[in-house]
Amino acid sequence: MTSSSENVSLQSTLKSMDTEEHIDLWFYRKIGYMWACLAKKLGVTPNAITIASIFLGVAAGVLFYYPVLWINVVGMLLLVWANSFDSADGQLARMTKQYSRLGRILDGLAGDLWFVTIYFAICFRENATSEFFSAHVWVIWVIAVCAGACHAKQAAMADYYRQFHLYFLKGEGGSELECADVLKAKQASMPWKGNFWSKITLFFYTNYTESQEDWTPRMQGLRRELKRRFPDGNIPQSFRDAFREKSLPLMKYTNILSFNWRTIALFTSLFLAMPWLYFIFELTVLNILLIYMVVRHGRICRNFTKQLQDGLY
After folding, report:
1. How far apart are CA 225 and CA 163, in angstroms?
2. Quick check: 177 and 249 in contact, CB under 8 A?
3. Distance separating alpha carbons of residues 42 and 254, to the nearest angstrom
4. What is the DSSP string of 251-303?
């Protein structure tokens, strides 16, 4: 009975079964739930857990600089710990209803800081230990910058597609889908006095959202058509179900573009003592997957926009 109750409670802290990744369900969500329960008892906030994850993830990245396997393994364990905290902050927020845009921004920033540190560590390590890269110092940095830019876009688009899927699955209240125009209006109406950091944060978040929209013109076309047809936001359940059915197969690809498969590739490259291979994985496998997702999702949105225009809903 207790185990059943715990499973129900754990599921209540998940965004949705549609968007959860198998490794997360088997490992990170269970550990995250335990951290979240402990944090709730101690009165620790989700943002405090996120900040703690930053220190753990950055420390992990620093340890990847050393070409010593046992030190790298300690770094791997720290990165796993950091990600369990990354899971816990969201689960705690859903458990205690402590949602905030700042929390969402801080959560994204945490992952960025982990991987920026990891990128620097790999570059410095390769320049110090590799005969080729030490003779051509600029090469690894160019590769890292390209891989980092791709990483940022891959993660942003994976998150955006998940939020759009959640919008149809759970409605506006169950999704963190944003609109750049709304964010711009909010930013413009916010006075600088007394809101300096909030305004700066909102500026960068607005630009982030705008770049997501720029990459998804057909999704934006569908959103405009939905707003025109259903200005009150009451999208028919039949449409929601139909979109969810087509979008669901893409969720497994958004998960591959997220944390778990990246770290599998990263840890493999460290065990092989060739951390530069991680950059190649991002530049090839993950970019191919990103392009496939963008094209396929665009087709889905185009087809549903046409159905709306033809009056099928």
Report:
1. 18
2. no
3. 34
4. HHHHHHTSHHHHHHHHHHHHHTT-THHHHHHIIIIIHHHHHHHHHHHHHHHHH
Sign of the alpha-carbon torsion through 215, 218, 223, 225: positive
Q: Residue 237 to residues 19, 225, 268: CA-CA distances in angstroms?
A: 19, 16, 44
Burial of 22 (0-12, 13-18, 19+ CB in 10 A): exposed
Cα distance between residue 281 and residue 7, in whole Å = 36
DSSP letter for each residue of 120-135: HHHHHHHHHH-HHHHH
Condensed to tens digits (0 to 9), the pLDDT of residues 210-246 reads 999 999 999 999 999 999 999 988 999 999 999 999 9
- Give residues with Cβ within 8 angstroms of 96, minimum separation 6: 40, 46
What are the pLDDT digits (tens) for 71-107?
A: 999 999 999 999 999 999 989 988 888 777 777 888 8
> Which residue did the predictor score with more confidence, 276 or 199?
276
Please tell me the pTM assigned to this model. 0.89
- How many Å separate Cα 181 from the centre of its chain? 22
Tell me the pLDDT tens digit for each residue of 99-124.
Answer: 777 778 888 889 999 999 999 999 99
Q: Residues 119, 111: contact at Cβ < 8 Å?
A: no
Residue with tokens 């703690």: 52
Q: In whole angstroms, how far apart are CA 147 and each of 80, 105, 141, 153, 282?
A: 22, 22, 10, 10, 6
Residues 6+ apart with CB under 8 A from 36: 13, 88, 89, 91, 92, 95
